[in-house]
Structure formats: structure tokens, C-alpha cells
Amino acid sequence: MIKLAVFDFDSTLMDGETIDFFAQSMGIGEQVSAITERAMAGELDFFESLQQRVTLLKGLEFSKVEEICHNLPYMNGAIETISMLKEREIKVVCFSGGFRTATSYAKNILGYDADFSNILHAKEGRLTGLVGGDMMFDSSKGDMLQRLQGLFGISKEETMVVGDGANDRSMFTHAGTRVAFCAKEILKKEANVIVDIKDLRQIIEKVFN
């Protein structure tokens, strides 16, 4: 009986990587996406790769950040899947190594209960190249999941996690149902449910039916 479902945001609830959209608007898309790709494959330390990528965004107007975050393409079936989970009285939470400007805005559209992510530092209307927040490290998602399980009295067996990249491994350790969604090989190895179709409703079919 699942009581808590935790979803990654970028390339899971949202079809793409938020930071790559920022970079594209600055004309440095290929440079940043190359770092993102290596980080998600587990080839780079997540903290270091996040710092590197955010540094490259220095000078981007915060109004542009908000505009991009308010127009992100959500994954097929995201709204329906979260709605189905909540009908089953499952708490639905988003953990993201990305940014609160994206996850907090999406919360009201997609319908999850809470979001934990990072904050881009801005000064005088532009990004400074600095970042801080809840999900800065490879271990962050696992740490936060254990805190939520303790807070709500929810066991590992009652927890489902859904993600696609290397920084989702730490939360996979603490969940009974581990869904690799269109994922990197490094994460598939630790999953017990694999979905390779870009439609989150496949999770309902595979896990609940």
C-alpha cells in the first residue's frame, strides 16, 4: 500500500531540463547541456556540476527565468497521474535538483502537495551565478525522503519514487517501489519498475493495475 510518491521534476514531471532552457536563451545551450548530460549519467559530482552550470548563467535577467519557468512543457500524463495518486490518498511530492521558480509554479498546475528544490540567487534583477537550497548534493533526495518518512510515519515499503538520473539514486535506496522513467542506465540498475515510454500514466498501469 503506497502512501507517499516522490517525483523528480526535470525530465520526469517536465519534458526537458529547466537549466538547459535557461542556457538556450543565452546562446550557451550546448555547453550547459553537455554538463547536465554527464551529471545525470553519474559521470560528474552533482554539486560541482550544478555550481558549474549556474555560474554560466550569470547575468541572465530574472524576468527571463520566470518567463521560461512559466512556459515549461510538462510530461505527458503528469496531471492525470498525480490526480490518480491523490484519489488514492497518496501524498505526492516533487524533489528537484533544479529550481523553485519552476517547481513552485508547476505545483499548482500539476497538483502535487509540496516541492523541494534550489533557489537561484539574483541581485538587481539578474542572476549572480550563485545557487543554494534543499537539493544541492547527490545525497539530498535520499536525506529529504528519510525526513518526510519520519515526519509522516511512512515506511520504505509504503514509498514510491520516480526519477531519471544519477542524482535520484539516493532516494531509490529508501523506497520499496523504484520507478526509472525514461532513465539513464545508472538508475535503471537500481529500479524495480522501468518505464521507457514518455507517458507517466504508464506508472499507474505498471504499479497499480
Biggest sheet record: 7 strands, mixed
Assess the beta-strand content as a share of residues. 15-25%
Oligomer: single chain
Find the count of extended strands (DSSP E, 2+ residues): 7
What is the CATH-assigned architecture? Answer: 3-Layer(aba) Sandwich
CATH topology name, in short, is: Rossmann fold
Q: Strand arrangement, largest sheet? A: 4-3-2-1-5-6-7
**Terminus-to-terminus distance:** 13 Å
Given as residue ranges, the uncertain stretches (5+ residues, pLDDT < 50) are none
Q: Which descriptor suits the 3D outline? A: globular
Report the total helices: 10
In sequence order, what are the helices and strands, one letter per element?
Answer: EHHHHHEHEEHEHEHEH
The helix-and-strand class reads alpha/beta
Total of domains: 1
Global Rg: 16 Å
Mean pLDDT: 96
The CATH superfamily name is HAD superfamily/HAD-like
CATH class, named Alpha Beta
Determine the fraction of residues in helical runs and give it as a percent range.
Answer: 40-55%
What does this structure look like?
This protein is α/β, with parallel strands linked by helices and 209 residues long. The protein has one domain (4-208): HAD superfamily/HAD-like (Rossmann fold, 3-Layer(aba) Sandwich), CATH 3.40.50. Helices cover 43% and strands 22% of the residues. It contains 10 helices and 7 strands. A 7-stranded mixed β-sheet has the order 4-3-2-1-5-6-7, with helices on both faces. The protein is globular.
Task: Compile the SSE list and pairings.
Elements: E1 4-8, H1 18-26, H2 29-40, H3 46-56, H4 62-69, H5 78-87, E2 91-99, H6 100-110, E3 114-123, E4 126-133, H7 140-152, E5 159-163, H8 169-172, E6 177-181, H9 185-188, E7 193-195, H10 201-208
Parallel strand pairs: 1-2, 1-5, 2-3, 5-6, 6-7
Antiparallel strand pairs: 3-4
Helix pairs in contact: 1-2, 1-4, 2-3, 4-6
